[in-house]
Amino acid sequence: MNHSKLKILSYVTALRPYQWVKNLLLFFPAVVSIQPFSTDMFKTLCISFIAFCLVASSGYLFNDLLDLEVDRNHPDKKTRPLAAGQISVLYSKILIPVLLIIAFLIAFLFVNIKFFLILSVYFLLTAIYSLFLKRKMIVDILTLAILYTARIIAGGFAVDLQLSVWLLAFSMFVFLSLAAVKRLAELVENASIGQKNSVGRSYEVTDIAIIEGVSLVSGYISVLVVVLHIFTEATQEYYSRPEILLVICPIIIYWITRMILLTHRGQMHHDPILFSLRDNTSRLSAFLIILIAIIAKVS
């Protein structure tokens, strides 16, 4: 492979395209909505997905520029294109506004103003997180949960769907749990190498038990939200056998508890969402949840 192709590949890698899978959350409100999933809705969400990926990548570049010196001394992050010196710092600084301009033009011209606004809020919160909030304990994981929930809100806004308060509550609690797992994984790794503090974070290895508790409690509250939602009037009317949906709850409890146990044992990738996508047990859990929902609908 010649030098120019390697350079292009390095810039693409710096955009972290493997993280774009998280933006599929934009489709979630349409998938779980009682309204029919139309072709126009799908097209709009695909366009929204592209815009969101561009904004997210600009945020990753911005964060890498801020953490450049720290990443160069990190055992894993030192291989990132910026930290490894594979791409230009100047060109990276230029690329950020270019990505943002393209994304916001797509949002404004091809989606709608509400999506444009939530996309703007998402980027601002991402920037504030990178500048300040990621160094504030507890605030950092709350911010991550909000950023994930913002994707769901954006998906609803893109296709003018009314967002259920139950959906948003579930999202906040389950993603708070996963954000805590992410911090827990870092702390467990630090403990394994005898490092007492997290670099660039406000946590110490002595906080492991507290962070585990936050993750467990948040995850279990998300299950409680599911139970309460099952017994709402809308759910009871939409599903033929809504009581079957209760079977989903032990699956979520098992999945959350297993994720935390694996993290406690040092077997968790730093990003629990990407870990889940590669983990057969997590994929089986997701399949069973979808299957149960279908059975509850058609029975």
UniProtKB/TrEMBL annotation:
One of its GO terms (cellular component) is plasma membrane. Keywords: Membrane, Transmembrane, Transmembrane helix. CDD domains: PT_UbiA_2 (cd13963). GO terms for biological process: glycolipid biosynthetic process. One of its GO terms (molecular function) is transferase activity, transferring alkyl or aryl (other than methyl) groups. The chain crosses the membrane at residues 20-37, 44-62, 94-125, 205-232, 244-261, 281-298. It is a multi-pass membrane protein. It is found in: Membrane. The keyword Transport does not apply. Its main location: membrane. InterPro entries: Prenyltransferase, UbiA_prenyltransferase, UbiA_sf. Pfam families: UbiA. This is UbiA prenyltransferase family protein. It comes from marine metagenome.
